[in-house]
């Protein structure tokens, strides 16, 4: 995707999120730093200055979430996969503090299943009872929204999907 189109679609997607009730109700939001031309949430970070943000670090086979300002480059370092992540000394976030999880994906289907980069980090997180009840939104571009993806027993469906064309509830979560 050309860079200008990627920026435009990313900003439009962020505008879709801003108008959602899930966003309006959330005080603490878990997000991600863009990687390999995933939708860029920078515009959302600028609009959501009144939110608490959480970013993850990959530690072993798990995601550890930290309270972190995604716009403050001094709080971020490059992690083992080349993705920006918080320094380990940033305060940790527990599931009880989180209102919404924005989940990156390579692709999603209309049932809420996602294709990631194969590490299983989000599936393990969302399978945990403490994290399983927090609303989740898969973040993708419309061109990566498919009717159905093949699934495995460990795949955890997301509750909603947001693209530059809109936000909708996933069928599996209805």
The shape, in one word, is globular
State the domain count.
1
What's the CATH architecture?
3-Layer(aba) Sandwich
Query: What Rg is obtained from the alpha carbons, in whole angstroms?
Result: 15 Å
What is the SS-derived class? Answer: alpha/beta
User: What is the CATH first-level class name?
Assistant: Alpha Beta
The CATH homologous superfamily is called: NagB/RpiA/CoA transferase-like
Share of residues in helices: 10-25%
Q: Helix tally?
A: 4
What gap, in angstroms, lies between the N and C termini?
32 Å
H-E string:
HHEHEEEEEEEHEEEE
Instruction: Please summarize the sheet with the most strands.
Output: 7 strands, mixed
Which consecutive residue ranges, at least 5 long each, have pLDDT under 50? Answer: none
By CATH, the topology is Rossmann fold
Overall pLDDT confidence: 91
Task: Give the tally of β-strands.
Answer: 12
Order of strands side by side in the largest beta sheet?
3-2-1-6-9-11-12
* Estimated share of beta-strand residues: 25-35%
Q: Any overview of this molecule?
A:
There is one protein chain. The protein is of the alpha/beta class. It has one domain (3-53, 95-173): NagB/RpiA/CoA transferase-like (Rossmann fold). It has four helices and twelve strands. It has a seven-stranded mixed β-sheet with strand order 3-2-1-6-9-11-12, with helices on both faces. β1 (28-30), α3 (42-47) and β2 (52-59) form a beta-alpha-beta unit. The termini are far apart. The model has no long low-confidence stretch (mean pLDDT 91).
